[in-house]
TrEMBL record:
Domain of life assignment: Bacteria
Protein name: histidine kinase
One GO molecular-function entry: kinase activity
Gene3D superfamilies assigned: 1.10.287.130, Histidine kinase-like ATPase, C-terminal domain
Coiled-coil ranges from the UniProt annotation: none
Alphabetically ordered keywords of this record: Kinase, Transferase
EC number: 2.7.13.3
Pfam families: HisKA
UniProt domain Histidine kinase: residue ranges: 50-211
Taxonomic source organism: Bradyrhizobium elkanii
Keyword match Acetylation: no
Catalytic activity from the UniProt record: ATP + protein L-histidine = ADP + protein N-phospho-L-histidine
Length: 211
């Protein structure tokens, strides 16, 4: 039997609202560590942050070179154009990974994750995410239902990243012969985002792992 699995996000859409996340409530605390271990951990996290920044320069050079080739029209063969598209896609993916590394480092170093919030339309961002995933998985059906009638004060890039992760998980773990459904709407001052897919139900013993 196929169950419908839903993932939801609800945040206030008014200015000055706060985006909150909740974990499973399981905490692991290490005690008795030495000051040397703490210093080593901090040094490691600083190294990760520096590495993330330094990776941007060669990646920017690769991206610029690919754009020059694309604009020049020097590549005409279908195989060459496919390779160029792959380079552009890989650059985008690597840029996202670097952002994740920097977010991790900022969070561990106490700086927190920076949010760039505004009230610009969120629907184009969601449509772009869905289009990208449809292109990446042309054999899968992704259905959308958007009713966004109020401005949403949020970090649109973060919401797009969240939507991409949820849909990607649904495509990976859901029933391949069933559609993935995504919806977003504003209602009563709240923005709601949900993703649903069909698939085998999660065993009860694993529910705590998926909260």
């Amino acid at each position: 039997m196929l169950d419908v699995v839903r993932s939801r996000l609800a945040i206030p859409c008014g200015f000055g609202s706060t985006l909150r996340t909740r974990t499973s409530g399981v905490e692991v605390e290490a005690s008795g560590g030495s000051g040397h271990s703490a210093g080593t951990a901090q040094l490691r996290e600083q190294f990760i942050a520096v590495l993330g920044h330094d990776l941007r320069n060669p990646l920017a050079a690769i991206s610029a070179g690919a754009r020059i080739l694309q604009r020049s029209g020097a590549l005409q063969e279908p195989k060459e154009l496919r390779i160029l598209d792959m380079i552009n896609s890989t650059v985008t993916r690597m840029s996202d990974l670097i952002d994740d590394i920097l977010d991790f480092a900022r969070g561990r170093l106490g700086g927190g994750i920076t949010l760039h919030r505004d009230a610009k339309p969120i629907e184009p961002v969601l449509e772009q995410v869905v289009d990208e995933l449809r292109t990446a998985s042309p054999q899968r059906l992704i259905q959308t239902d958007f009713e966004i009638n109020e401005p949403v004060d949020c970090d649109r890039a973060r919401i797009g990243q969240l939507a991409s992760n949820l849909i990607g998980n649904a495509l990976t773990h859901g029933a391949p012969d069933q559609p993935v459904r995504m919806g977003a709407r504003t209602e009563g001052g709240t923005f709601r985002l949900w993703v649903a897919n069909c698939g085998e139900p999660i065993p009860g013993s694993r529910h705590a792992e998926t909260v």
